[in-house]
Amino acid sequence: MIKIERVTRENFDECIGLKVTKEQEDYVSSNTLSLAKAYAYYDCTAPFAVYNDDEMVGFILLRLSIERGWYIIWQFMIDERYQGKGYGKQAMRLAIDYMKQDERCKAIALAYKEGNEAARRLYESLGFKQMGEMEDGEVDMILELGK
């Protein structure tokens, strides 16, 4: 069963050990960098490990933009060993449910790098829509929650 749990000092090392494929390295930041961002922005971020039962399979970093009333999916990855099994979609649904529980959240935004077709297909399947023109090689997407 897929679940998300906060990254803590107990699972930190395991989280930074997760890796994407060589071809995907240009599409996502390292988990080490993402956890450094989570530390620097501790007051508005939530770093989660993605688990399949007791096995860590991925990582997701959420950031709340209070001024916009949005959450931003700042980082998302599934380890190369666990891709193609549906874990990413299940984890994203759990993260979306988590963000929806916050009454301040009116929308969820994210960006993916142009060319990352797997990310595009995943996000579109979850209801995200492209926000506008691509900037700096990134495609911005939004999921309106209708609150």
Q: State the helicity in percent bands.
A: 25-40%
User: Compute the gyration radius: what is it?
Assistant: 14 Å
Q: For the record, give the distance between the C-alpha atoms at the N and C termini, rounded to a whole number.
A: 30 Å
Could you name the ranges where pLDDT drops below 50 across 5 or more consecutive residues? none
The coarse overall form would be globular
CATH topology type: Aminopeptidase
CATH class assignment:
Alpha Beta
The spatial strand order of the largest sheet comes to: 1-2-3-4-5-7-6
Q: What's the CATH H-level superfamily name? A: Gcn5-related N-acetyltransferase (GNAT)
Class by SSE composition: alpha+beta
The average pLDDT score comes to 94
| Structure summary, number of beta strands | 7
Identify the CATH architecture: 3-Layer(aba) Sandwich
Q: What summary fits the major beta sheet?
A: 7 strands, mixed
Element pattern in H and E: EHHEEEHEHEE
Range of strand content:
25-35%
Number of helices: 4
- What is the domain total for the residues? 1
Q: How would you describe this structure to a colleague?
A:
The chain has one domain (2-144): Gcn5-related N-acetyltransferase (GNAT) (Aminopeptidase), CATH 3.40.630. It is 26% helix and 33% strand. The chain has four helices and seven strands; from the N terminus they run E-H-H-E-E-E-H-E-H-E-E. It has helices spanning 12-16, 31-40, 87-100, 117-125; strands at 2-6, 45-52, 55-65, 70-78, 107-113, 129-130, 138-144. It has a seven-stranded mixed β-sheet. A hairpin with a 4-residue loop joins strand 3 (55-65) and strand 4. The chain is globular and about 35 Å long. The mean pLDDT is 94.
